[in-house]
Amino acid sequence: MDAETGAILALQILALCSIVAALLAYLMRQSRNATDEYETRNKRHVLVTSCDTSVGLQIALALYEAGYKVFAGLLDSSGISPSMKILRAIEQQKERQEDPTDANHGNPQDPEVRAHGQIVPLELDSTREDSLRACLDAVRAKLPAGEDGLWAVVHTGGLALPGVIERQPSSAWESMLRHNLVAPLRTARMFIPLLRVKRGRIILLGDSTTSYGTKAGTGLVAYSASRKAVEGAAEALKSELQSSGVDVVLLKPPPVNPLILYSSPVLKTSDVESGIVSSEGTWTAPISADAIQNSLIPALTSPCPRVAYEMVAKTRLFCK
User: Fold this and answer.
1) In a 10 Å sphere around its CB, with 0-12 CB exposed, 13-18 middle and 19+ buried, how is residue 294 labelled?
2) Residue 242 DSSP class
3) Residue 175 burial class via C-beta count within 10 angstroms: exposed 0-12, middle 13-18, buried 19 and up
C-alpha cells in the first residue's frame, strides 16, 4: 500500500469514527432528554375534573401513561362505578409490576414501566361550589410537602341531552349550560390560585370541528350552543389570565357523538358475562389513544401552547 492510499484510508476511517461518535452523542442526548422529560412530568400534578365520563377517564389514563400524577375527579370515589373498576384494575396492574416476588413483574428500568405516573381518586362534582371547595382542600392536602400548586386542570365534565329544540323543555337547556359552561368557569375560579403558583394551564373541551348540532335530526342544538359558549369563554379567560401566567387551551374533540363522549364508560361485555373481576379493566374508548396523546400532551407541555388542538377521529379498543 503506497502512502497516498494509506492516507485516504486513514481519513475514511477517521470520518467513519466521527460519524459513529456523533451518532452515539445524539442517542445519549435523546435518552437524557427523554429522562428529563419523564422526571418533569412525574413532578407535575394535574386535576381531571370528571372521570365519570368516557372522555374524562380516557384523558386521565393517557396522563397516567405519560407519567403525570393525576387527581381523578369522581362523583363517588369510593363506589363501584365502571370508572372506579377501571382505575382499580390499573392500580392492580401497577402493583404486580412493582411486586418483586412476582416472576412476571416489570423491570423498573423498563421505559414502559417507568413511564407510568400516579392516579389519586378524589370526590368532585364540579357543578357544586361546596364540592369544588372540598376538592381544593383535598388536593392541597395530597400535594407533596412544600408544594402548593397544580400544573393543569382539565375540565372533562359535560352533559348532552338530545331533543328537538321546538319540543325540548328549557330545563334541559339550563342543565346543559350548568354542566357544560357554568361548571368549568366555577372550577377555573376555584383552582386559579393553585395554577398561578406553577404558571400552569386550564384545558377545556370545546365543540367538535363537525358539530353534531349542525346535522339535521340530531337534536343537539342546545348542547352545541353550550359548547360554543365554552369556546368563547376560553378565549376571554385566556386574555384575562394572561398577566398571571396561567394559560387556557381548548381541546376540540373529533365528530364523535357527544352522548358517547360524556356517557359513563362501559366495561367489555365479556367481563360482565363471566362474573369474574378482571385485573384488566377493558373498555371501548371513544377517541383513539394517538389522538389523545397528540393533542393533550402538546397542550400540557408546549411553552407557548396553541389556542386550540384538534383531535383526530378514530375509535379503537383502549385496554389497561
Assistant:
1) middle
2) G
3) middle
CB hemisphere CA count around 63 (13 angstroms): 33
CA torsion angle 122 73 246 305 (round to 10): 130
Going by C-alpha positions, the residue among 158, 144, 181, 157 that lies closest to residue 69 is 144
* Dist CA 71 CA 79 (whole Å): 16
Considering just the CA atoms, what is the radius of gyration of the chain in Å? 23
Written as nine digits, the cell of 58 is 380516557
Q: How far apart are CA 267 and CA 47, in angstroms?
A: 24
Residue 155 near residue 248 (C-beta atoms within 8 A): no
Q: What is the DSSP string of 48-89?
A: ES-TTSHHHHHHHHHHHHHT-EEEEEES-TTS--HHHHHHHH
Beta carbons within 8 Å of 209's beta carbon, 6+ residues apart: 252, 254, 255, 310
Q: Please name the residue that has the C-alpha cell 442526548.
A: 29
How does pLDDT run across 241-253, given as a tens digit for each residue?
999 999 999 999 9
pLDDT of residue 1: 61
Of the candidates 129, 24, 140, 121, the one whose C-alpha atom is nearest the C-alpha of residue 70 is 121
Buried/exposed code over 254-271 (b: 16+ C-beta within 10 A; e: otherwise): bebebebbbbebebbeeb
CA dist 254 and 315 (Å) reads 10
pLDDT, tens digit, for every residue of 272-311? 444 444 444 578 889 998 999 899 999 999 999 999 999 8
Return d(Cα 45, Cα 151) in angstroms, integer: 6
Return phi, psi of residue 237, to 5°: -65, -40
4: helix, strand or coil: helix
| CA–CA separation, 205 and 224 (whole Å) | 12
Cell of 98: 412493582
Q: Which of 190, 60, 206, 215 is nearest to 138 (CA)?
A: 190
